[in-house]
Amino acid sequence: MSNLNIGIIVGSIREGRVGRMVGDWVLANAKGEGASFELVDLVDYPNLGAEYQAKIDSFDGFLFITPEYNHSLPGGLKNSFDFIAPTAYNNKAAGVISYGSMGGVRAAEHVRQILGELQVADIRTAVMFSLFTDFEGMFTADVKFTPAEVKAGELQGQIDQLLPWAAALQTVRADAEAIAA
User: Fold this and answer.
1) Does domain 4-180 have CATH number 3.40.50.360?
2) Is it the case that residue 1 has pLDDT exceeding 60?
3) Residue range 82-102: mean pLDDT, rounded
């Protein structure tokens, strides 16, 4: 495995969101030999146009961070899948990191369904955060992200699964490009 570019996609654009805190924590704790990690906040791509397409094209794999809104993923994340050519996501690997009252599990499962349609190989290991135990002062202006130490180990386990898949799918993409040429 070498030269793997992994995008950490913050999927909420809602005012007052905590997703950026989660994203910053993931970036600070993401480690993998031969891999680089980059935080991509959907707030920075309001039009989800060519610039976003190019950013997604540049990655070999993803860690999607999603809150659970109304038992599903947020609209901003769904739009990020729908507004660009699906080929930007094809034959890449992804992990899902979720948060919500029940750890965001329903949102994570919806993201997995979408990833399947986009031909993204999602890995089994998930990282889930509870609004009640992994955040202090939730629903206040002073909210802080305070995950338990064990969560860093869960994230590392997720990355350890993600990187071999991302490397293998580099070969799949190269073979597909050779066939198309």
Assistant:
1) yes
2) no
3) 96
Which tokens hold the place of 98? 């979720």
Q: Judging by DSSP bridges, how do beta strands 120-122 and 92-100 pair with one another?
A: parallel
Integer CA distances (angstroms), 121 to 55, 85, 148, in order: 19, 17, 28
* Domain edges within the chain: 4-180
- Tens-place pLDDT, residues 125-140: 999 999 999 999 998 9
Token pair belonging to 50: 């060519």
Alpha carbon distance 55, 123 (integer Å):
22
